[in-house]
Amino acid sequence: MPGKQPLFSFGVISDVQYADIPDGHSFIGVPRYYRHSLLVLQRAVKTWNAHKKHKFVVNFGDIVDVNCPKDQSLNVVMKVVDEFEKFNGPVYHMIGNHCLYNLPRDKLLPLLKIPSIHGHAYYDFSPTPEYRFVVLDGYDISAIGWPQDHPNTLEALKFLSEKNPNTEKNSPSGLVGLERRFLMFNGAVGKEQMEWLDGVLQDATKLKQKVVVCCHLPLDPGATSQEAILWNYNEVMDVIHRYNCVKVCLAGHDHQGGHSVDTHGIHHRVFEAALECPPGTDAFGYIDVYDNRLSLVGTGRMESTDMCFDP
């Protein structure tokens, strides 16, 4: 469709996981470039600003790494947020597990300017009348981020003890297939948030809006590894599949990225991590939004992806 202008466009980046420490490796040996990831973000912001056409930016979570020294957590989060703030427009954040390893929700959410009711981190916004963005809190029911005696922490720990027999709850050892998602670094969407999501999708349907769902944790097994998916992704997708308004689901968390189209024709795109870019390489992009497609234009390790759907 040459010549057709997008309705709007927005920048995307995920899993910066900055820390002022030497390079390291993931649990399975994938190199991680903790200091370089901040340079990736700086180049991303510079590129987005140079385009002069992006309405906003979405950061898909994990701005700081678990290995960041805890006495530096607050300053490091503020440092990364400051880099995002250099974008000439709004930036929408969501929380990831690494953010919550560093700071509790009550400290983190104000820094990320996430609109919050009772510490929850889900919200929606509508950049144009035709589209609505829904940002889910994938760590609503979670063993990290809430106070230790919080009902959501206790619910998560009970859930993990039933689903994962390992002493180390981040180990999938002995778990088979999709059961491998029952790990402490994942989480679930709670009942209240599920009801809120249902209400938002009802409203979007009435307004004839197309919806883009954003969550740190992926929502479709076809787009991600079995260890990286939301605990109750199936329940969330059951709500989403009741409506025709959701066209695309975007996520981070699984650093290698992925893309799938589910049984209802919804595209799922998981973004490649900024953290795993060797020096001099990048992983960020922007999405042009049309009536009948979202077109991701990737830079470096982030692959460009066309996501077409029925308008």
From TrEMBL:
InterPro entries attached here?
Calcineurin-like_PHP, Metallo-depent_PP-like, MPP_ADPRM
Q: Which cofactor does it need?
A: Mg(2+)
Q: Which residues form the Calcineurin-like phosphoesterase domain?
A: 9-256
Record EC number: 3.6.1.13, 3.6.1.16, 3.6.1.53
The reaction(s) annotated as catalysed by this protein in its Swiss-Prot or TrEMBL entry are: ADP-D-ribose + H2O = D-ribose 5-phosphate + AMP + 2 H(+); CDP-glycerol + H2O = sn-glycerol 3-phosphate + CMP + 2 H(+); CDP-choline + H2O = phosphocholine + CMP + 2 H(+)
Instruction: Write down the superkingdom of origin.
Output: Eukaryota
Q: Which UniProt keywords apply?
A: Hydrolase, Metal-binding, Zinc
Complex and partners? Monomer.
What protein does this entry describe? Manganese-dependent ADP-ribose/CDP-alcohol diphosphatase
